[in-house]
Amino acid sequence: MLSVLAGLLLWSLGIYSTNNRHFFPAWAALVPLLVLGPMELLRRTAPNVTLGVGTLGVIADQFTVGNLGTVLIFTDLVYAAVVYGKPAMARRLPVSTGLVTIAVTIASVAWLRTPQALMIGVITGIVSFGPALTGATLRNHREAAEAARLRAEQTALLAEMDRSQAVVAERARMARELHDMVANHLSAIAIHSTAALSIDSPGTSREALGVIRENSVQGLAEMRRLIGLLRDAGAEQEAVATPSLDGLDALLAQARVNGAASGLDFVLHDDRPPGEPLPAPVELAAYRIVQESLTNALKHAAPGTVRVGVARDRGDAGMLTVQVDSPCGDRPGPRAPGSGAGLVGMRERAELLGGEFTAGRSGSVWRVRAVLPAEEKAVNA
Fold first, then answer.
1. What is the pTM of this model?
2. Residue 232 has pLDDT above 70, yes or no
């Protein structure tokens, strides 16, 4: 409303913007001023309406003695229409006001044929094109800032999602490693401690205690190694040996010791061609699948022979097959409880490499079978 008060003051002092035109009495210059004044209150909520009323008002002002306050209000309405109006108006208004400025300049020069006629075009540009261009510049900056803010929020959201998924994947991996490394030793401890409690024989108890001590020491060493990996994650450290299929002989030897009390024997059939190394992820997954299968055999298998087979396809597919057959039936000795987490972990290991996993009863044996991609390109895919 300051523009209205300023316009009233100028009119009361007799200061007009177009003294050379007298189509209407001097008081008529107040009509456009008083009509445009309330439009300032609506310039944000209804920019289209205020711009239309403002345009009619400033045109009407040209047929009176003129008031500078009316012109100032019109410039603010043009600016507000670009800043707060619809995107289409914000794009069109600077262009249309620029074309109007050019047209008025050409018409003025052609009509008056004097250099002073150029001032009419300059004033028209200042009143219409200038505010529109200023509003368009401000709006572009605001939209660019808002777009940058949205991109930053999306980037932060994606980063948080990636972090959460990485944490979940790492927790699942560590759970599999912890289960595969420790479950075998704890199962042997549970079986032999139950045997020592149920059979009252000094020889049996001493033998069971020896197996319990060996497995507890090995399990503790595996736990310490895993804890060390967790503590030193991201720091410089010596490389830790990754289990591979070359360690199957030692793994089965340990299983024979643990399964002696249950009447279990373990046989390995390794049909892999010599001198053809496998990718490290495949070696680790195959080793852990055999290890978990032997643990399950110690827990649940009937007396007999557990057969472990490892073979590599020489064809183009390049697949590594791991199969463990455990005898099914009634088991007279002690059993260790199971939770089913081992089967879940073996299936996850196979599927993460793009392989296949099956487990179930096949005739008189419980068969665990995993087919893993043995080629480097398959693992990295």
1. 0.47
2. no
